[in-house]
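Listing S7. Sequence submitted for prediction.
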Amino acid sequence: MTCSKCGKRQGVLSLLSADLGGAPYICPDCEAVKRAEVERQRVDEAKEEERIKVLARQVIITTTHSVDGYYVKRYIGLESVEYVIGTGIFSELSTGLADIFGKRSTAFEEKLQTAKKIATSTLKVRAAKQGANAVVGIDMDYAEFDGNRVALILNGTLVEIERRPARGS
C-alpha cells in the first residue's frame, strides 16, 4: 500500500490498522502531520477569538454620530444585529396578570434586557472583526411577529476613531 500524500510504500501490517472507508490511504507519519496542522489551526482560531473578544470589550457604542474627543479616521460600513425571542407561555401569563393589576411585567422585561445585552455584545464583536473600534449612530428597534415572537434590531455605523490631539500639541 502506498501513502497518497508522500508516496511511501507501507508494509502489510499497516493494512491492519488502516480504516480506509473509501478514502485514500495516508501513512501514520502524514496522518500525524495532518493532526498537528488541525491542532495548530484550532489553537490559532482560539487565539484569534480571544483577541477579538478583547478588542470587542473596548468598542465604544453610542447613539450619537460622533464621540467627544475623537474624530472618525475611517468609515467601515453599516452593521445590524437581529435578535428574535419568543415571549414564552410563562412570560405571557405573567404579563397578562401584570396588565390586569396594572403592574410591570418583570419576566418579559428581563427577556428584553437580555436580548439588548446579547445584541450589543454581538455588534461589538462584529465591529472588532471588521477593524472598527466604535459604532456610532446606534438605533434600536423592536418588532413583533406572529407566534408571540419579538425581534430586537440594532443598527449602527462601524467606524475607526482616533483621539483628537490635545490643544497646543
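Caption to Listing S7: primary sequence and predicted C-alpha cells for the chain studied. Residues 12-56 form one domain. The mean pLDDT is 85.
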